[in-house]
């Protein structure tokens, strides 16, 4: 069985492409910092449907314990504080097993 985490954001007004580019660069480093991450995908909404969130992240783990390491890892927490907190109007998340 695998464990998955999905999170989506709606940016605050004024969050620009430069901020998103910096976030993408930081997210690109995350799997190398946290070996429990087995798969990591992220990006801005493709703009196909109206009403979607602005940005999504999916992360895959062997099990819930791997997810918990990721959730609480100092690098991940630093990323959240620097790039997410104060920049989002809404957040939605879910975790599930397959």
**Number of strand elements:** 4
Radius of gyration: 13 Å
Widest sheet, order of strands: 2-3-1-4
What is the helix fraction of residues, given as a range?
25-40%
Segments where pLDDT lies below 50 for 5+ residues?
Answer: none
Report the sheet-strand fraction.
25-35%
Structure description:
It is a single chain. The chain has 98 residues and is an alpha+beta fold. Helices cover 38% and strands 33% of the residues. It contains three helices and four strands. The chain has helices at 17-33, 64-72, 74-84; strands at 3-11, 39-44, 55-61, 88-97. A four-stranded antiparallel beta sheet has the order 2-3-1-4. Helix 1 runs antiparallel to helix 3. The longest helix has 17 residues, at 17-33. The mean pLDDT is 97.
Write the layout of secondary structure elements.
Blueprint lengths: L2 E9 L5 H17 L5 E6 L10 E7 L2 H9 L1 H11 L3 E10 L1
Antiparallel strand pairs: 1-3, 1-4, 2-3
Helix pairs in contact: 1-3
How would you summarize what this structure contains?
This protein is an alpha+beta fold and 98 residues long. The chain has helices at residues 17-33, 64-72, 74-84, and strands at 3-11, 39-44, 55-61, 88-97. Helix 1 packs antiparallel against helix 3 (74-84).
Defining key terms:
single chain; 98 residues; alpha+beta; four-stranded antiparallel sheet; 3 helices; 4 strands
